[in-house]
Description:
Elements: E1 6-9, H1 25-38, E2 43-48, H2 53-68, E3 75-80, H3 85-93, E4 97-103, H4 106-113, H5 117-134, E5 137-143, H6 145-151, H7 153-164, E6 170-174, H8 182-195, E7 201-204, H9 212-221, E8 226-229, H10 243-253, H11 265-276, E9 293-294, H12 297-304, E10 323-324, H13 332-342, H14 348-363, H15 373-381, E11 390-400, E12 403-413, E13 416-424, H16 427-442, E14 448-455, E15 466-473, E16 477-484, H17 487-503
Parallel strand pairs: 1-2, 1-8, 2-3, 3-4, 4-5, 5-6, 6-7, 7-8, 9-10
Antiparallel strand pairs: 11-12, 12-13, 14-15, 15-16
3-methyl-2-oxobutanoic acid (KIV) binds at residues 14, 101, 141, 143, 174, 176, 204, 206.
Amino acid sequence: MPQYVEILDTTLRDGEQTSGVSFTESEKLRVAQMLLSELKVDRIEVASARVSDGEFRSAKVILDWANANGFGQAVEILGFVDGDISLKWIEKAGGHVINLLCKGSKKHCEKQLKKTLDQHLADIANTVSIANEMGITVNVYLEDWSNGIKDSEDYVIDMVKGLEKMNINRIMLPDTLGMLNHKQTTAYCSIMTSNFPDMKFDFHAHNDYDLSVANVYSALECGFSGVHTTLNGLGERAGNVPLSSVIGIVKDHLNYDMKVDESKLYKTCKLVESFSGLRIPANKPLIGEFVFTQTSGIHADGDNKDNLYHNSINPERFGRTYSYALGKMSGKASIKKNLDELGIQLSPEETKKVTAKIIELGDKKESISKEDLPFIIKDVLGSQIVDPSIKIKNYSLSVAQGLKSMATLCIEVNGKDYEKTAAGDGQYDAFMNSLNLIYEELGKELPKLVDYEVQIPPGGETDALVITTITWQSEKRFKTRGLDSDQTVAAIKATIKMLNIIENNI
Length: 506
Ligand SMILES: CC(C)C(=O)C(=O)O
């Protein structure tokens, strides 16, 4: 039987300690539901006790749902060695598990608490016995354990000997400041497992040296049974170890077992991206936008020839698909892959001309998407793969202090003009509201705008060209881009492309 790895995801507690990130009550509930019922992690840590009224309401809403759906024991709350205060907070919220924050290094115990180890253990024993009476399960965090074991190994060993005598469920060992490397992790985790072979240990990694994944690897090899993760690697400073990377190493490198449904990973990470407001870096393994995009033509060629580059990180596992970038590295094979997806057929001669144009645009640093192809083909070959049957005739946009923005828009659809005026929260919103009115009159539905991204080149130029990229969702999800020195005009250009794409059924 492969070793089983238990995941505690702490996006909603430690992840929310990312500077500038704060989740609302309903966002927390949605993330908790996704984590437990879709992604199927084993446990989630959702709050710190006593922090605020808002934190209490969020914990309660999650626990109400979890208790009603059989996940009550999987929801954990960080609490303090404070007699019954944290425990009562947790009980009132409907919780059943406390992750008790204790001092894992002599320095912290003596200098922060101003207590000896024996005094600290006595306080812990008091809180644990109250928890036992209340029927609350206790896990114990040894905060700053990685420094503790380095500087005061005897303290850590004596502490765990003391904890072993109490009725606790597991010990959770944080590398609080992300200081360890993989060799140190192996050395220190081995000390723990060899001294306490019957104890369950979780490892809690931070990423300050970008070594969190390597350290998790080492801790699991030493026989630790659990790992703490966050979605997208959120967390204080450089963050916690990302769940996505842990899934990768546990399944593909260690060949251990876990319950997580990796096909739901991307969807859950995107949800947290939108709630946290922090974009997932495009090159973040498994979940970044570009990690399944082949750029060089030679890879596309290999994929066309019996899947020569096939490997274990295939996108379908994670609910994603391969794509083939268009730019100066594109060969005919990449272009053919994109044309096939759009259902467009070109002769070898036509493909050559279109390839040359894409390479030329790539050389000018322009980014080209699959959806730009029909427009490029029209440009190069003059053929009507996309018929710009929708044109903007004119528009006016207003912005004023204390008043809503207004937009009047006139577009031509198949030779006939349509004009509407609408207000909005900002010029582009007003523009889209006018467009929606026109589409209502036409009896057609517009795709939903699901993402709006503006790229402004670094530097202080106010007239710099900006690229606005909009992601649309109809039956399919697609992106269009617009380029202009005015951000709203760039968005309008992207929108007109979208209208012609849906009109031409591309
Ligand atoms: C609060 C503690 C457990 C923590 O997150 C850490 O030490 O990293």
